[in-house]
Amino acid sequence: MSKKIRRAGLGIVYLAVLGALGYTALVQYDVHKSYPQAIQPETGEALQAQIKRGEYVARLSDCTACHTAHGGQPFAGGYKLETPFGNILSSNITSDKETGIGNWTQEQFDRAVRHGIGSHGHLYAAMPYNAYAKLTDQDLTDLWTYIRTIPAVKNKVLENQLPFPFNQRWTLAGWNLMFFRDRVFEPDISHSAQLNRGQYLVDGPGHCASCHTAKNFLGGDSSAYLQGGTLEGWHAPDITPNPYTGLGSWSKEDIVNYLRSGTNRMAASSGPMTEAIENSTQHMTQSDLEAIAHYLKSLPASVAIRPAAINSSDTAMVVGKKVFESQCNACHVSDGSGIRNMIPTLAKNPQINAEDPSSLLNVVLNGSEGPFTHANPTSAGMPDFAWKLSDSNIADVMTYVRNSWGNAAPAVSTSDVASARKDMNARPWLGESNNK
Ligand code: HEC
Ligand code: HEC
Ligand code: HEC
After folding, report:
1. Which of 63, 120, 332, 352 has its Cα between 20 and 30 A from that of 417?
2. How far apart are CA 391 and CA 254, in angstroms?
3. Ordered domains of the chain (ranges, CATH)
4. Nearest CA-CA partner of 407 in 347, 325, 359
5. Which protein residue has the closest C-alpha to ligand 3 atom 16?
6. In the prediction, which pLDDT does 31 show?
7. Please, are residues 215 and 221 in contact by the beta-carbon 8 Å criterion?
8. Residue 328 marked ligand-binding
9. Has 120 been labeled as part of a binding site?
């Protein structure tokens, strides 16, 4: 997938106020500050085991997702994260001494990964150091021993391609002051070991909040923890136990199956979540997946606001039903029930009820290949409909799907589809409407 869909984490960081704050904060977040090296790496035979553990930490953290460019060498950087201000490229973190981090010490690595200070000064939050700050000393050290084994690849990356004044790294100190909590994860002794492990994985290496928590206007995490966030062209749904738009109706086993294979008895992943599953969660151990499921189910559910479903006699619903019957029935089945582990159900599927329909529009306009995992090597694909259906037909079929079979969600308008078509670089509609 070549679309740049990762949250760049910038927001509107560059307000004058932040610049000023940044200046004062520089004193506190001195880029030359040093951090104690807690643990020495192993040597001899124990080192091999440590490298293996570190490789697993890299999987949990999905370092490859951003540090490997499409078609590029592993970890050699150059993956482009688009922001409203310009591009940020990920760094080369192979052991090349000149263009990578081959000359680094563990302390320098720690400063970048857990404290957000890289070779050119403060890092942009596009690198999720605000989550990795929670990594334990042991995991950080294990990760370092693994990263050092990555073969050197010469690849010079110009990370910061932002225009002035956004390219001024010192302003990021102000952002850190407001939003960065530079603290290692501390287990809550009143919780079980499993619950603590789940929280650690979600908040630390898994950095789930970077997509699933909405951002405030400065690009920091809002207080609506894991209650859904919007990335460019995608909606990462509410994953609290909200019975309606969240995981309330999913069992722990459903969550584990989804994270391991990309599908379960109702859903199939697409877009950025498919990438996270393919690169990261499918490689997690059963007990780690269970810990995540246990933790997510233990969260307080977000407030469930269930709108009334739009009446089936509404014009959009009547037209939408016709479009569905001619274009979608064959796979999703007339009652929206789909085909287990292959074609997602559109009935009682929390993502369908999300207020923000962007993921659904993305899938319908551009199609989706479906997850490809060890547990699910033969996933089905969803065809693209951008060329085949008009904006109003797509709006109507979305409205119909979102208000049938027990679903209820705001209508999708023709102008929503028109702007999605543009923003998501979908193909133009090529013909006469089939249904009007
Ligand atoms: C969501 C994307 C993303 C993920 C995931 C990610 N990184 Fe990064 N990383 C970046 C970007 C972008 C930069 C460059 C940021 C900048 O220049 O301000 C970066 C910078 C770095 C740097 C600083 C290099 C330098 O020369 O200053 C290191 C080290 C690093 N990442 C290591 C890691 C490791 C290890 C992991 C996994 C634990 C990881 N990254 C996961 C996006 C990511
Ligand atoms: C790069 C962004 C990103 C990251 C990181 C991410 N997710 Fe997601 N996630 C998404 C998007 C987007 C969707 C919606 C996918 C779809 O509609 O098929 C999603 C869907 C899901 C779903 C299915 C919800 C539903 O109602 O269908 C679950 C469960 C989930 N994510 C859990 C997690 C967990 C746990 C983590 C951390 C280990 C995580 N995600 C990390 C973007 C992300
Ligand atoms: C050839 C079979 C096929 C047809 C025809 C089809 N779909 Fe799909 N659809 C799929 C598959 C497979 C997926 C899962 C894709 C993935 O996992 O990325 C999917 C996913 C979806 C999703 C995303 C569900 C979620 O949980 O994120 C929506 C919404 C959707 N389809 C709606 C439609 C609509 C509306 C039509 C008719 C205009 C349609 N589909 C026609 C096979 C099909």
Report:
1. 332
2. 34
3. 16-179 (no CATH), 193-298 (1.10.760), 315-423 (1.10.760.10)
4. 347
5. 370
6. 57
7. yes
8. yes
9. no
